[in-house]
Amino acid sequence: MNTHEYIENNKQKFLDELLDLLRIPSVSADSKFKGDVRKTAEFVKNSLEKAGVDKAEICETAGHPIVYGEKIVDKDLPTVLVYGHYDVQPADPYELWDSPPFEPVIKNEKIYARGACDDKGQMYMHVKAFETMMATGSLTCNVKFMIEGEEEVGSDNLGIFVKENRQKLAADIILISDTSMIANDTPSLTVGLRGLSYLQVEVTGPNRDLHSGVYGGAVANPINVLCEMITSLKDENDHITIPGFYDKVAELSAEERKALNDAPFDLDGYKRDLDINDIKGEKGYTTIERTGIRPTLDVNGIWGGYIGEGAKTVLPSKAYAKISMRLVPDQSSKEITELFSKHFSAIAPKSVKVKVTPHHGGEPAVTPTDSPAYAAASAAFEEAFGKTPIPTRDGGSIPIVSLFKKELGLDTVLMGFGLDSDAIHSPNEHYGLFNYFKGIETITLFYKHFAKAK
Amino acid sequence: MNTHEYIENNKQKFLDELLDLLRIPSVSADSKFKGDVRKTAEFVKNSLEKAGVDKAEICETAGHPIVYGEKIVDKDLPTVLVYGHYDVQPADPYELWDSPPFEPVIKNEKIYARGACDDKGQMYMHVKAFETMMATGSLTCNVKFMIEGEEEVGSDNLGIFVKENRQKLAADIILISDTSMIANDTPSLTVGLRGLSYLQVEVTGPNRDLHSGVYGGAVANPINVLCEMITSLKDENDHITIPGFYDKVAELSAEERKALNDAPFDLDGYKRDLDINDIKGEKGYTTIERTGIRPTLDVNGIWGGYIGEGAKTVLPSKAYAKISMRLVPDQSSKEITELFSKHFSAIAPKSVKVKVTPHHGGEPAVTPTDSPAYAAASAAFEEAFGKTPIPTRDGGSIPIVSLFKKELGLDTVLMGFGLDSDAIHSPNEHYGLFNYFKGIETITLFYKHFAKAK
């Protein structure tokens, strides 16, 4: 039985296993899910063992554990290090989900659940592809799995784990499925990722909540001040005003920008899908460029004062915001975090006190398109989809990619099978059955071509 | 026994009764306290009956009930209509209270509880003053009590009640204790109150929460946009930019402004009490003017995106804010609410949708200082405190005052015994025992002088 037949014969089993995985609420950001995160790690470990690794282990960290497993076929064969994450984003606001986020359902050929695509679904494709190759005796490379539980909160402990296990993690290439492609009939390979700086800010006015009638107009309102400070971070062209912010941004050549903009993009469809009358972004750049090659600043959350039912005429003591910046080559997350902190404190009026707390960050990355690994990935997509994949710049961040390069000297191939419309990080996240099964097949083809290419 | 002796002999009883009243969480803004609000109304009704009114009743409204009671001594005597409210502001944030808001405690001669001052404590003084005059046979006026349960949410139903009961409420003067004085050794009488327009705004960007990496930089973030819109509502001089906003603001003469600023004010003590390094307000006006005679705009609450533990890289679909404006003569709450709604929708960029929902409002008011009632109040303070009270403009709003003038043709005397430092609307609200007992005595003296003056 060949790999294609094995996948066809095991579709229901592959699906049922993923649904079980999706039922465990492994929200890494919220400590109340700590036990579920560990359950998920054990689930992944058991899956790797059943699939046929020589050994699988749960590696403790200062935070959530990392699952490691390997199958060494022959020391002389090329080795693929598969990275993925089993943790998921928080599911709230729960009320906006059509079905409970941790009770997966299949609707119009899609799996609906938190983590269906990001990254349980895409990560699990690699486990099933490995099982397929083992079961059909077609595994042509050594394989190492490193599946972490802290990607959605900054992967801090994975960085330490990598530094401490260089030998164990030795490989020829990193393989990751945690990105998206343009469309099911337009395969693409992500060759660039944005970095991230994520901070929380706290603005304190008076030492207690005040009556807005007695003090309003005479005492600085921390919410108004926070709004003014956030507003001042961009100019009228949506250009970020933090001094030095753009100093290290790598400008692309006219040719590179043209190639980037040659990728199919339907602006009307884009607006229709989001139900917006207009897009908004940095002047002088296209939507593809704004999300691909330009840095951004977004408020991810804001709160302060009375947010309950009805009205309260309060002049609050404090206001808060979570602010993140997406970074591009050659910006440094650490440097931008420092620039932001320095600037945000500097622009605070004397009437308030400001506290800035860095949350986490990650470096931007660009992966080479002239490597044997990229060639193998491209060939795999071509064989599976009948089309050469288009190289794209992805707006998201997988901080670990630049860390792998730095610590292990390894390049990464980003074979993503999601779609931007999968609503990852949003209510009603979903993943297409087509993408799940096609992904498993494409991954097996990557191993075939990569073994040849080396 | 004279009134002074009666009050002295009943201090403990007067205090214990108030503590019982403070134990009932009558938060009118939050429907989950509906039952407690009614319990409080019944408590007030029973207190009036025990104090000796001819009849007391609970008057149903579309919202929380109104308690009415009256004692007609002689049709030819002047009639005082006492207004107060038994509802209180929400107590959150609960974690900032040193003791539970609805478990009153006495510390350094002060009663700590939500509503201790605003307005249960100040309202109950009138019930006890009435009891004192009844018990000592010194009641020289007819008295009518109208105690409502919706002052903190806009008094909408009281307005209807007043319109429908003009006959029943016929009186010579309205007497209210729901304001503050300058200091315990510097009595003052409030002669001006600000009005209020309170609205909630909702800004919608994309139709769902988005991944800030995939869409960030290309799609309008409703939080950033809301911050920009709020910021644009004031210029660099903290002057409000809503077209027409200041058109009806009554400018005071140089003399009036001087008289106002002659009231004692300790800026250093003010800043120390609030732990702020600087005050902030409209350019060209003093703190007393900013809170007394100038309109303001404050964000009372803001929320949007992810506000939970940790980090979530989301570009949210919606952002919200509760915004209120304090108004001065001769601004109209209805008109300002319309100007705000029109302007806020007009400044929204095409990339978002905006919804503005008026919450409630109230008209500003100025009370005459040349009336027999004002003279009686002034004489009462002088007799009780040994000092002539200073007329002041108060920053807060008691919308009902202008409604009384309009519907009943009655002026109001604002005999407030609170202090700005009582932290009303804030955690650890408190009310001085001195103020509570001195207030009861001063009120009995008002009746004495008012009967003479008429």
Automatic annotation (TrEMBL), chains A, B:
Keywords: Hydrolase, Metal-binding, Protease
Ranges in a coiled coil: none
UniProt-recorded Gene Ontology molecular function terms: metal ion binding; peptidase activity
Claim: Transcription regulation is one of the keywords in the record: no
Boundaries of every Peptidase M20 dimerisation domain copy: 199-350
Pfam families hit by this protein: M20_dimer, Peptidase_M20
Biological process terms in GO annotation: proteolysis
PANTHER family on file: BETA-ALA-HIS DIPEPTIDASE, SUCCINYL-DIAMINOPIMELATE DESUCCINYLASE
Protein name: Acetylornithine deacetylase
Organism, as annotated: Fulvivirga imtechensis AK7
Lineage: Bacteria, Pseudomonadati, Bacteroidota, Cytophagia, Cytophagales
